[in-house]
Amino acid sequence: MLNLVLFGPPGAGKGTQSQKLIDKYGLIHLSTGDLLRGEISQGTELGLEAKKLMDQGLLVPDAVVIGMIENKLDANKDAKGFIFDGFPRTVAQAEALDNLLESKASAISGMIALEVDDDELERRLLLRGKDSGRPDDADPAIIRKRIKEYNDKTTPVAGYYKNQDKFTSINGIGSIDEIFSAIVAVTEKY
Ligand code: AMP
């Protein structure tokens, strides 16, 4: 099984590159952000609770996203593999993911991190906000909060995979195709 974690701050290009990886490798895309927005649009209790945090640029509780990922893994037992996009965002989520995969006799193949500086992220997210309709893309203060949450809580997740010798970093600035080629070059080694 090919199980990739695509890592990087909000606006790094994880969603765009995930789509290209799905097309190439036939993997299942698991984006906790997309799953949460799905709950919000369905008006579920979980979605309503999550929205309060998401609109402030804060992370939702670990148990919520871990539960959603567990459901999706169970619902896709015959998958060739998964792309985890925007998950894990804390070390506790990374540990839970390892345990979930181990219980299915599987494991993470590797983490690929897209490196983009903060100024470029802010520029990209404000631009995306014009079309995405996402409230958390529209306000520079919320964008900066999301980047701060990433720097405070999510960057340690890279260390978690470095310790397992599963971490590769890639320059996330360049054309979509250039970045995709760099990702594929790493993926082919798994
Ligand atoms: P994203 O679409 O990945 O940028 O996520 C949008 C928002 O959803 C984040 O700012 C968080 O509020 C929430 N979220 C998505 N994934 C996670 C996660 N793995 N852990 C906690 N919160 C998450």
Automatic annotation (TrEMBL):
It comes from the Bacteria. The keyword Nucleotide-binding applies. Pfam families: ADK. Pathway: Purine metabolism; AMP biosynthesis via salvage pathway; AMP from ADP: step 1/1. Its EC number is 2.7.4.3. ATP binds at G11, A12, G13, K14, G15, T16, R128, G174. GO terms for molecular function: AMP kinase activity. SUPFAM superfamilies: P-loop containing nucleoside triphosphate hydrolases. The keyword Transferase applies. It is an enzyme of class 2 (transferase). Residues 31-60 are annotated as: NMP. InterPro entries: Adenylat/UMP-CMP_kin, Adenylat_kinase_CS, P-loop_NTPase. Keywords: ATP-binding, Cytoplasm, Kinase, Nucleotide biosynthesis, Nucleotide-binding, Transferase. Consists of three domains, a large central CORE domain and two small peripheral domains, NMPbind and LID, which undergo movements during catalysis. The LID domain closes over the site of phosphoryl transfer upon ATP binding. Assembling and dissambling the active center during each catalytic cycle provides an effective means to prevent ATP hydrolysis. Belongs to the adenylate kinase family. Catalyzes the reversible transfer of the terminal phosphate group between ATP and AMP. Plays an important role in cellular energy homeostasis and in adenine nucleotide metabolism. Monomer. This is Adenylate kinase.
